[in-house]
Write a structure and sequence with these properties.
Elements (H helix, E strand, L loop, with lengths): L17 H9 L6 E2 L11 H12 L12 H15 L9 E4 L1 H13 L5 E6 L5 H7 L3 E6 L9 H11 L3 E7 L11 H11 L5 E5 L23 E6 L12 E4 L2 H15 L4 H11 L6 H21 L3 E2 L7 E5 L8 H12 L1 E2 L1 E2 L10 E5 L4 H18 L2
Parallel strand pairs: 1-11, 3-4, 3-5, 5-6, 6-7
Antiparallel strand pairs: 2-8, 7-8, 9-10, 10-13, 12-13
GO biological process, one term: amino acid metabolic process
Keywords: Aminotransferase, Pyridoxal phosphate, Transferase
GO molecular function: pyridoxal phosphate binding; transaminase activity
């Protein structure tokens, strides 16, 4: 009896990610040094951990409401109001989710149907497409490589018109994984001018919003398109809380009333003690990302200097904690093979650019969410590798 034949046929469209495939292919390298993880190397702030301990000691171990603790939703509303000028009512316009990933799953399963298409600027984080495929919809990528990974209004409108009635949503991610690209107020306003003309959802993954490095603060597209935008955020990156699994959906009341239907049956509610920790993070710890951000800038600039000297083309990232670098001419352009050779010969792992889609081929992604000592060693080994493989 082979019951796999009776499973959801959309699973056939989903494969183990190339990131995982690559990781498995080099996991046997002794002492492998990985600059692969999209996870802060900082510990969760002490005051946040203490808040969780107090909640546990107070027996806060029961279900919260499906939307999450009202105190947390109020803290989230206050946070995005102060930081980004956004107004959301905690009672009916915010959902607490199990990380940004569940927020995306709940959102995409709620709005998509078989045959729908979703526009996605590429190269892009590979976690979006499997969710879209599972419900029978399809990702359509917009190639941004010729424009330094920046989506323009002209690119966007052309793609929207090409999709026509099939188009259900545009999925944005900025600051972006893997490129680190983010957008100015003028750029966001220009994209919003295009999007407001069409009856489509804007799903905006802004989980790296607190990790922006230019002088201008992060600008959410929800500021300009509050009725169309479903805003995704969370505490994993901003507060080094990846394991706590706290994310948020911000949307108009009419949309939230529908989104809670998919959210509640996916998870019921986020962990209660983690929600109490999140209240502390968003209130007393609202600026906790600042110290991390200063360290990330130093690491970013160090890597850019070193890799640029070796011939890598790098668009300076203004957010997140990734370098997406073009492999120099004269070297192996298959990013999977390049990274595999580097890992096996020098025991340092980058992520092949092709893991982020076909438009990432010829690039490598490395995370600078690692100590400067680790990064320095990795750069020295990269220099050796490039010298040994030069034509």
């Amino acid at each position: 009896m082979d019951l796999t034949k009776r499973m959801n046929k959309n699973l056939d469209k989903i494969e183990v990610s190339l990131i995982r495939q690559f990781d498995q292919s080099i996991s046997d390298v002794p002492g492998i040094m990985k600059l692969t993880l999209g996870e802060p190397d900082f510990a969760t702030p002490e005051h946040v951990k203490e808040a969780a301990k107090r909640a546990i000691d107070a027996n806060q171990s029961h279900y919260t409401g499906m939307s999450g603790l009202l105190e947390l939703r109020q803290a989230a509303a206050d946070f995005v109001k102060e930081k980004y000028g956004l107004t959301y009512h905690p009672e009916d316009e915010i959902l607490v989710t199990v990380g940004a990933t569940e927020a995306l799953s709940a959102t995409l399963t709620a709005i998509l149907e078989p045959g729908d298409t979703v526009l996605l600027p590429a190269p892009a984080y590979p976690g979006y497409e499997p969710i879209v495929n599972l419900v029978g919809a399809e990702i359509v990528e917009i190639d941004t490589t010729a424009n330094d990974f920046v989506l323009t209004p002209e690119m966007l409108e052309k793609a929207i018109l090409e999709q026509g009635e099939k188009l259900k949503a545009v999925l944005l991610n900025y600051p972006a994984n893997p490129t680190g690209v983010t957008y100015s107020r003028e750029q966001i306003k220009a994209l919003a001018e295009v999007l407001k003309k069409y009856e489509i959802f804007v799903v905006s993954d802004e989980v790296y919003s607190e990790l922006t490095y230019n002088e201008e603060t992060h600008v959410s597209i929800a500021e300009y398109l509050p009725e169309q935008t479903i805003l995704i955020n969370g505490l994993s990156k901003s507060h080094a809380m990846t394991g706590w699994r706290i994310g948020f959906i911000f949307a108009s009341a009419v949309l939230t009333a529908q989104l809670i239907k998919s959210h509640q049956y996916l998870v019921t509610a986020a962990a209660t003690s983690a929600q109490f920790a999140a209240i502390e993070a968003l209130s007393a710890g609202k600026d906790d990302a600042f110290i991390m951000k200063q360290e990330y800038i130093k690491r970013r600039d160090f890597i850019i200097e070193k890799m640029s000297a070796l011939g890598f083309k790098i668009i300076k990232p203004d957010g997140a904690f990734y370098i997406f670098a073009k492999i120099p001419a004269g070297y192996e352009q298959d990013s999977f093979k390049f990274c595999q050779a580097f890992a096996r010969e020098k025991a340092v792992a980058f992520i092949p650019g092709v893991a982020f889609g076909k438009y990432g081929q010829g690039y490598v992604r490395l995370s600078y969410a690692a100590s400067i000592e680790t990064i320095s060693t990795a750069m020295n080994r990269l220099e050796e590798f490039m010298e040994e493989h030069a034509d």
